[in-house]
């Protein structure tokens, strides 16, 4: 976290050389956190190395989330990745979470999808500040977060059914009263 604090915002009590400036800054930035139990870290090359690694972590402003359709009776990743057609309930859910966009010629966040030759599909779902990409295993399998949309009658989902080193979070969405005014997820 990088923060700029104007000097006039700091208290002016006592000698600056003995005042715990870091604690005062932390209390200003995070007023609801109790810092009474914190102790200074040991000054060592290992601590410095870990702090440098933390500081080098990128700040993401765009996210790619995979979305899979799980039809009635399906429970394996092969079944879900082989779905070639959508359903009215799934389309309704996609319209709920974002805007359907034509990939060919799309000039905003692409999330690794082909916007020239339709090799990764013709459409995707886009939501400002968060991009949701609808594609096959080549892309979904590389997303850390995957939404599994379950139609009525779908078998219980198990993360064991998906073989991936990248997918860490599965959000299971079940539709109730699909394609009605009382739809809920």
From TrEMBL:
<dbReference type="InterPro" id="IPR035974">
    <property type="entry name" value="Rap/Ran-GAP_sf"/>
</dbReference>
<dbReference type="GO" id="GO:0005737">
    <property type="term" value="C:cytoplasm"/>
</dbReference>
<dbReference type="InterPro" id="IPR000331">
    <property type="entry name" value="Rap/Ran_GAP_dom"/>
</dbReference>
<dbReference type="Pfam" id="PF02145">
    <property type="entry name" value="Rap_GAP"/>
</dbReference>
<protein>
    <recommendedName>
        <fullName>Rap-GAP domain-containing protein</fullName>
    </recommendedName>
</protein>
<dbReference type="InterPro" id="IPR050989">
    <property type="entry name" value="Rap1_Ran_GAP"/>
</dbReference>
<feature type="domain" description="Rap-GAP">
    <location>
        <begin position="51"/>
        <end position="185"/>
    </location>
</feature>
<keyword id="KW-0343">GTPase activation</keyword>
<dbReference type="GO" id="GO:0005096">
    <property type="term" value="F:GTPase activator activity"/>
</dbReference>
<dbReference type="GO" id="GO:0051056">
    <property type="term" value="P:regulation of small GTPase mediated signal transduction"/>
</dbReference>
